[in-house]
């Protein structure tokens, strides 16, 4: 087993082009199953969640070719097949694969999705979506089997703007007969990206970027190409790294309006921000200041995926702040672990209060999910002394190569070290 050894008191200074978005690439790969012609995707991130999703597609008979950041998918010969727990436990995509399978073939079987343990993450809204589109669902070996009994479009009203359930509804609606409508849809930029991709393949989706999506069903989708946009959460991670280290950075490829609530947070901490059409430059003050209250919310609200990074930033800011986590009921592991750095963090779910200290100190810490591990890594850059961080495998789910990126941003003193097993007598 390996762990990362991070030298503290490194300062971010540099520029970087941000990798493609994980949470856009994954649903688009599932949507490829709907298209019986070749699709070419560029600027795809090289991360393990993408690898695992490509494996699922291969299992379903999709021809997949990956070269650098370009992926070619040809689902002309695809057929429905069971996706086992072994294949589905790494991420949330199997439930979208089920939507795509029943839409294209009328049948599909999957094991339940896995992914980060940040909450219960039920699939009831996905089930509601699939059933509304005429699919009969049955329990099958730790998963679900779906058979589509009728192909009509429908009107769905989501009680909560779930990202995944909105994506599933889009996948079901495109090839349905007649009109469909999704009311209460999630408005995340990744949903808009998926709509643009599908429209490029011949779908008829209107209302992009709003909570009311209208879809005119088509008989068939056709081949297309699509360039994946920059990952706004990766961008937010590196901006926070600059903020906590008193640094400065220029990120390219990012659309600032997709990160506006987080940029607003960084500005309230005292960071200077210069927004470009596709870029952000951040200059941190000598010391961050915090006297604020924020709550994670569906887009365009404060993103839950950047909550652990925000806790890191608040840990070294002057003043006291309160963060409320309203999306995932168990996303507190990283905040808890920050205490090992000397952070003054109190957790009373759903709230985290943080009283900033002048200096954190290096420590042995463990990441237990993707964003939490990334947050611990960037916070360690600001601490005094050395940090040993376990959980690198989680980083690979969403970040192409954080060591490479941070080295480019001037923080090259991070190395991997083999962890020796301890034996207990
Ligand atoms: C997506 O997850 C992202 N994942 C998550 O990214 C992100 O944190 C989340 O949206 C919120 O922004 C991908 O896009 C692959 P949801 P998803 O359905 O679709 C509840 C990251 O680190 N819910 O909007 O799973 C659910 O439990 C991650 O990159 C139901 O109750 O999120 C949660 O409390 C992790 N029933 C809330 O809704 C359902 O059927 C939001 O979930 C579905 C969801």
Account of the protein in words:
A hairpin with a 2-residue loop joins β16 and β17. 32% of the residues lie in helices and 26% in strands. The two termini are 21 Å apart. α1 packs parallel to α2 (48-59), α8 packs parallel to α10 (307-315) and α12 crosses α13. The chain is elongated and about 60 Å long. The protein is α/β, with parallel strands linked by helices and 425 residues long. The model has no long low-confidence stretch (mean pLDDT 95). Ligand EPZ binds next to α1, α5, α6 and α12.
Primary descriptors:
alpha/beta, 14 helices, elongated, 24 strands, about 425 residues, four-stranded mixed sheet, single chain, binds ligand EPZ
Structure at a glance:
With 425 residues, the chain is α/β, with parallel strands linked by helices. The protein contains 14 helices and 24 strands.
- Kindly provide the radius of gyration, computed on alpha-carbon positions and rounded to a whole number of angstroms: 22 Å
CA(first)-CA(last) distance: 21 Å
Q: DSSP helix count?
A: 14
Ions, cofactors and other ligands present here are:
ligand EPZ
**Please, what is the average pLDDT?**
95
Identify the overall geometry: elongated
Percent of residues in β-strands = 25-35%
Task: Summarize the amount of helix as a percent range.
Answer: 25-40%
**Overall number of strands:** 24
What structural category arises from helix and sheet content? alpha/beta
Strands ordered across the widest β-sheet: 22-23-1-24
Describe the main β-sheet briefly: 4 strands, mixed
Low-pLDDT runs: none
